[in-house]
Design brief:
By secondary structure, the protein is an alpha/beta fold. The chain contains six helices and eleven strands. Helix 1 runs antiparallel to helix 2, helix 1 crosses helix 3 and helix 4 runs parallel beside helix 5.
């Protein structure tokens, strides 16, 4: 009897779950089924740009398991595109990012967070929870201090402060390599923040590509202009900052 697989942590719920070739009747189409865990694997690796080690840890699986998920997803996508099949996103052995903690009885030490016998949450429970407590914030900064101003350019911010709302401690990421980047500054900064483990980002303005990476990673985005980093943190904690639903500037801003 094969041992049960551990649920994989998924932090993204797709709005579109069915794709088909244009002009081909549904009745004659073959269908490829892509699991939610497979979608999460390609999202973390190909879109957000995490390493295999980072992505596996994010999903709570071993690197070999993550590699198999990624390979399976690529094969299914290739089959659908090359052979003109419909693609349905459905199922998969999943739990939410904020799921139960504890070592997996089948894969001790591999990072699975499900307790033995714990219930896997249904898919509708895997959507981001509004209002949950954010433990780590990423705030763009002009000088790397809490007293200094928020740098209003996300991708080309001089520094990014990581602030723990529970311990009140902070550290600084040097974003200087992106200051004069010809392109991709916002995407690179977004990937750095995702890797840091932050759950929300505070800055002045966000371009479309950076915003897409951030939202696909499940992070909340807040706008803070003409204020210090300390004031931005206080605004976040008191609910006074504006939560953004989309990019507010063009690319290369």
């Amino acid at each position: 009897m094969p041992r049960p697989t551990c649920p994989r942590r998924v932090g993204f719920s797709p709005n579109v779950t069915y794709f088909k070739p244009a002009g081909t009747p549904m009745g004659i189409l073959e269908e490829v089924l892509l699991g939610r865990d497979e979608v999460e694997a390609i999202r973390l690796k190909n879109l957000i740009g995490l390493s295999q080690e980072e992505a596996a840890a994010q999903m709570g699986v071993s690197q070999p398991t993550f590699h198999r998920l990624l390979l399976s997803a690529h094969q299914k996508l290739t089959d659908a595109v090359v052979n003109g099949k419909a693609l349905r996103i459905e199922g998969g052995n999943i739990t939410s990012v904020e799921g139960p903690t504890g070592p997996c009885r089948w894969k001790q030490g591999w990072g699975c967070r499900m307790k033995p016998g714990a219930r896997v949450r249904p898919e509708e429970d895997n959507l981001p929870q509004e209002g949950k407590k954010t433990m780590k914030l990423a705030i763009t900064s002009m000088d790397g201090t809490l007293e200094g101003k928020v740098d209003e350019r996300f991708g080309r911010a001089r520094r990014i402060i990581l602030y723990d709302t529970e311990t009140k401690e902070h550290s600084v990421i040097d974003n200087g390599t992106n200051l004069n980047a010809a392109q991709g500054a916002g995407i690179q900064a977004a990937q750095n923040v995702v890797r840091s483990g932050a759950k929300a980002i505070i800055s002045g303005h966000f371009g479309p590509k950076a915003f897409q990476v951030i939202r696909m990673a499940g992070l909340d985005v807040y706008s803070a202009t003409n204020m210090s980093v300390k004031e931005a943190i206080e605004g976040f904690e008191t609910g006074k900052l504006e939560k953004l639903s989309g990019a507010d500037v063009q690319s290369h801003w």
